[in-house]
């Protein structure tokens, strides 16, 4: 089985899939393309929804990042077999998707003054509310759900990493004020995983994301 992940040259929505496959020791081709290459792929009609990320499995495309993560998560054993626990993982996962969706308009805004206003709204209102929800949902033992690593942990880790790396106009220390103890435990669990540490050292540390 050949798996190729095609995305831009940063973490973004593809990173949880990369981490899931890395943790499971499943080989994949990590293809990172330019904006020009993306535009050509879009114009050529090879992207099912006209957007990234896209993964190919034996040459067959799969779009939508959550669908991709579910696929990779099942391959990697990162989705519970218990129906209720699986539903709780997806509950947490979709909460993260709601946060990311709320961020996109501010990141895409072209007017710099309006962009900073929108980011202030995120920092002052949206993030405290939504990360408060996630803190209540998260387990006490360093995992989002249950007592084992799941795709929800990887998605939370990716989002928190993005914010900790720094986005202009949003405080980098938003998780450092004692209000997100359980979320920080989840972050530490994933960040301390030997395969994640090796991946970060080889791939992410040499090229930190540029803040938006």
TrEMBL record:
<dbReference type="InterPro" id="IPR040079">
    <property type="entry name" value="Glutathione_S-Trfase"/>
</dbReference>
<dbReference type="Pfam" id="PF14497">
    <property type="entry name" value="GST_C_3"/>
</dbReference>
<dbReference type="Pfam" id="PF02798">
    <property type="entry name" value="GST_N"/>
</dbReference>
<dbReference type="InterPro" id="IPR036249">
    <property type="entry name" value="Thioredoxin-like_sf"/>
</dbReference>
<dbReference type="InterPro" id="IPR010987">
    <property type="entry name" value="Glutathione-S-Trfase_C-like"/>
</dbReference>
<dbReference type="InterPro" id="IPR004045">
    <property type="entry name" value="Glutathione_S-Trfase_N"/>
</dbReference>
<dbReference type="InterPro" id="IPR050213">
    <property type="entry name" value="GST_superfamily"/>
</dbReference>
<feature type="domain" description="GST N-terminal">
    <location>
        <begin position="1"/>
        <end position="80"/>
    </location>
</feature>
<dbReference type="InterPro" id="IPR004046">
    <property type="entry name" value="GST_C"/>
</dbReference>
<dbReference type="GO" id="GO:0004364">
    <property type="term" value="F:glutathione transferase activity"/>
</dbReference>
<dbReference type="GO" id="GO:0006749">
    <property type="term" value="P:glutathione metabolic process"/>
</dbReference>
<dbReference type="InterPro" id="IPR036282">
    <property type="entry name" value="Glutathione-S-Trfase_C_sf"/>
</dbReference>
<protein>
    <recommendedName>
        <fullName>Glutathione S-transferase</fullName>
    </recommendedName>
</protein>
<feature type="domain" description="GST C-terminal">
    <location>
        <begin position="82"/>
        <end position="210"/>
    </location>
</feature>
């Amino acid at each position: 089985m050949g798996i190729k992940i095609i995305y831009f040259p940063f973490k973004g929505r593809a990173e949880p899939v990369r981490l899931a496959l890395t943790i499971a020791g499943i080989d994949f081709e990590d293809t990172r393309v330019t904006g020009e290459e993306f535009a050509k792929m879009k114009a050529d009609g090879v992207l099912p929804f006209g957007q990234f990320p896209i993964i190919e499995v034996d040459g067959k495309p799969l779009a939508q990042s959550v669908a991709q993560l579910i696929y990779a998560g099942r391959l990697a054993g990162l989705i519970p077999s218990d129906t209720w626990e699986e539903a709780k993982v997806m509950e947490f996962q979709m909460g993260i998707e709601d946060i990311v969706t709320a961020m996109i308009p501010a990141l895409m805004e072209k007017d710099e003054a309006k962009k900073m206003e929108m980011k202030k709204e995120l920092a002052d209102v949206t993030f405290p509310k939504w990360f408060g929800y996630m803190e209540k949902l998260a387990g006490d033992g360093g995992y989002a759900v249950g007592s084992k690593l799941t795709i929800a942990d990887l998605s939370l880790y990716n989002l928190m990493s993005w914010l900790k790396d720094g986005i202009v106009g949003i405080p980098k220390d938003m998780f450092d004020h004692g209000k997100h103890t359980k979320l920080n435990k989840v972050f530490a669990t994933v960040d301390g995983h030997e395969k994640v540490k090796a991946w970060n050292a080889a791939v992410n540390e040499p090229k930190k994301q540029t803040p938006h």
